[in-house]
Amino acid sequence: MHAAAAALVLLALGAVAVRGVAEVRVALAFTALIALGECVRITLPGDREQAPIGAAGALAYALLGPLRGLPTAHGILQVVAVTGIGLLLGWLPGLAPHRPGRPYRRPPWADPARRESAARRLLSVGFAAAVFQPLYNGGLVDRFSPEGPAYGAFLTTVAALAALCDATLAALLRASATGLRFPAALEDELRSLFGIGSAIVATGMLVSLAAGEVGLWALPLFCTPLLLAQISFRRAAAVRATTGQTIASLARATEVAGYTPHGHARRVADTACALGRELGLGTRELALLEYAALMHDVGQLSLVEPVPDGATALLSCAEQQRIARLGSEVISRTGVPRQVAEQVARLADPCSGPAGGEGPVPLAARIIRVANAHDDLLTAARGRGLGEAVGRLEALEVLRLGRGRVYDARVVDALARVGGQGRG
């Protein structure tokens, strides 16, 4: 994908250098907008970076028809060239020398997320331009009045196809990088379109439509609301960071107090996330799963005497459920998402059927129960002097004996496939 994007932008730059730039003032305005958008990026859930203003500007240029009532003729390759130059200019601030006392930031080209975002932007914008520009320059779009609903419906269709293209490329990259199944990755990317993605698409369409009447003033006029939306997303990101700090503190509390072995919560969370990816959970579900896995032992703080090695999997079912519910009550008072407390409350319930009339046990709770038991059994095996390989085989065999009754069969089978990721 990176090679395809690089080849496309080189081809576009070469073509523009040979043919010259059409409508230089317009090209410079959109280049500056894309570069500015690249400088004010935001981080979305799942640690995904996005440049909403730059993405909207590039889409608007790809869908740009008349400008103040006059036709444009920049074409596909100039759209790609302007987008590529804007991306490169947006990377220039990242080339400044590192100043002492400030956090070190990798150069943009050394950041895989920035490279992937740039490749996706170039390919998806090139796709949008390839659909729209030939039809516009060929006169087929002239059948629609720019003020009529048919023209707006046509732009909406092209923008939706471009968004689908970008989501598909993002899902392919995530599936190859994280091992997440492609259908789950695609579903997660499509779901994210209803957030900032829909604002990007709508802004790009509005800019292209409004430019036909007001010209380049459409760029600042319709990109300002998107900038305000970015500020809201930044505040939401700060709330998520505070939540993460709360979770980290609670997760360490049991270790500091001596109720669980060092690193137990992290190992359980790593194994749970590996199982979640194997079972096709999306980004949001994986984030909630990780939160619940990190805090699954908080209820042990209510015990007078610590459980040896914190191995709650070796306790009676009733005692496990009591600890889980006490932990859930603590978590529910911390501002952590409600689903996390629910998952912790149910993680000790038998998977074979409803418990206490509360309905089926959530998949996340079943995953954490298997991950926790796996680490508890491994810790017990190490205490008996067994090797790592033998301990893993023994732990997996114990889990298989409870398969379908105590532990969810699908989760145990997934553990056998991934081999247990919580190490250390």
Give a description of the structure.
The protein is mainly α and 424 residues long. The protein folds into two domains: 2-93 and 107-238, no CATH class; 257-418, Hypothetical protein af1432 (Orthogonal Bundle), CATH 1.10.3210.10. It is built from 15 helices and two strands. The chain has helices at 2-19, 24-39, 52-62, 75-91, 112-137, 149-178, 182-214, 218-256, 264-278, 283-294, 317-331, 338-346, 363-383, 388-401, 409-418; strands at residues 42-44, 48-50. It has a two-stranded antiparallel sheet with strand order 1-2. A hairpin with a 3-residue loop joins strand 1 and strand 2 (48-50). The protein starts with a helix and ends in a 6-residue tail after the last helix. Mean pLDDT is 81; it is low at 353-357.
| Beta-strand share of residues | under 5%
Helical content, roughly?
55-70%
How many individual β-strands? 2
The helix tally amounts to 15
Envelope shape: elongated
Main beta sheet: 2 strands, antiparallel
Order of helices and strands: HHEEHHHHHHHHHHHHH
Q: What is the number of domains? A: 2
Estimated radius of gyration: 26 Å
Strand order of the largest sheet: 1-2
Please give the alpha-carbon distance between the first and last residues. 35 Å
Task: Offer a few descriptive terms.
424 residues, 2 domains, mainly alpha, Hypothetical protein af1432, 15 helices, two-stranded antiparallel ribbon
Summary?
Helices cover 67% and strands 1% of the residues. It is mainly alpha-helical and 424 residues long. A two-stranded antiparallel ribbon has the order 1-2.
